[in-house]
Amino acid sequence: MELHNRIDKKGMQQEVNLVMKSRSKHVDIRVNECSTIPFYDIYRSIIEDLRDINMWSFEYIATTFTRSLKLSNACRIDANLELRKIAEKVSKYYERNHAGTLISRVNNYLQEVANALCSLEHDVRELQVELNYRGNIGVSSGFGQLLFEWGISFDPYLNLPYIPASSIKGAVRTAYKYLCTRYSRNKEDCNNKVEEIFGSSTKGAGLVMFTDAYPVDLRGNAKYILIPDVVTPHYNSEELRYEKEVEPNPVVHLSLSKAVIFKFLMYYRPRNGRRINYDNDLVEDPSSISSTDDLRLIDKAVFLAFGLGVGAKTLTGYSQFKIVSYRRVCRG
Predict the structure, then answer these.
(1) Is residue 86 part of a domain?
(2) Cβ neighbour number for residue 8 with a 10 Å cutoff
(3) Cα 262-253-228 angle, rounded to 5 deg
(4) 267: containing domain
(5) Do residue 40 and residue 150 come from a single domain?
(6) Rounded CA gap, 297 and 269, in Å?
(7) pLDDT, one tens digit for every residue, the chain (332 residues)
(8) 79, 30 in Cβ contact below 8 A?
(9) What are phi and psi of 321, to 5 degrees?
(10) Could you tell me if 142 and 184 lie in one domain?
(11) Any residues with CB less than 8 A from the CB of 148 and at least 6 apart, and which?
(12) Which one, out of 95, 209, 244, 274, has a CA that is 20 to 30 A from the CA of 43?
């Protein structure tokens, strides 16, 4: 009986060894098949040590690789896990200390723009805004759209995420129109003011302009400019009607981190005889404004626009900012 047990144990051990050996060979084969995917070698060498690289170019390489993974059933690497790894790696690339060089470049760039505008006799204001929570800007286009199916506005030259000037101007324009209508009660007059100040097809270019906003600092315990995030759509088809038929599908993507500070410029000057009317300079307390004086109302509109949110998912707390610095650079 004892001999029989020893034989059984020996046989079982041999069987286990054969299975493990077989699995080992199978894994090796599948890894080799992964290496046939386009950009495999380039992608692997970059992802292991993600430093000093243009993220826009890296996205193209990573997108080609991960999409090929999804088409390759034989390759053992999971595409969704790979996307999560990419998001984590990109986030670490934009860690506070490593991003210092990029931030310094942005500050120099904005200073050069401010100097140029001042030399052209524009009135220039410098604003800094801080994210109250996470931020999503440009989700339908830009960096990340191909890779994560959830984009973020990204500057390929400065290698940083940013808030487009058009988004800022649109939000401030909407806030200005709301405030003007609230205080003056004259919709027609307010519509004319909006067109004069922000531009229209009939009035031409506006008097108020903005630059893109770039990250220049991190407050408090914030460590990263970009962080991995997830959105989970439940209803993937218009035909679904019942809660039990939903199909949760977590989508990994990148979001702007809480406490990231963005800097941009607001500038204006007379154009074709039109000008912004103002007697005083910066407003100390925008909440106290109840005047339709052009500049004072623009000041309050800026605070209101960023408080309500510039970007996506504002109703859930995303993309809402507070003004942390608002100063005059020069007066034309």
Answers:
(1) no
(2) 10
(3) 70
(4) 108-330
(5) no
(6) 17
(7) 444 444 454 554 554 344 344 444 444 445 667 777 877 888 888 888 888 888 888 888 888 888 888 777 667 777 778 888 889 989 999 998 888 889 999 999 999 999 999 999 888 999 999 999 999 998 887 788 888 888 899 999 999 999 999 999 999 999 999 888 887 767 888 888 888 888 888 877 888 899 999 999 998 888 999 999 887 766 665 665 666 666 667 778 899 999 999 999 999 876 666 666 554 544 445 444 444 455 678 888 898 899 999 988 888 888 999 988 888 898 87
(8) no
(9) -125, 165
(10) yes
(11) 83, 87, 251, 252, 253, 254
(12) 95
- Do 67 and 43 touch, CB atoms closer than 8 A? no
Bridge-partner residues for 152, per DSSP? 143
Place of tokens 């052009």: 294
Beta bridge partners of 155: 160
Q: Tell me which of 77, 100, 119 is where a domain ends.
A: 77
Name residue 208's amino acid.
Answer: V
How far does Cα 286 stand from its chain's mean position?
28
Could you give the dihedral angle defined by the CA atoms of residues 161, 318, 232 and 230, in that order, rounded to the nearest 10 degrees?
40
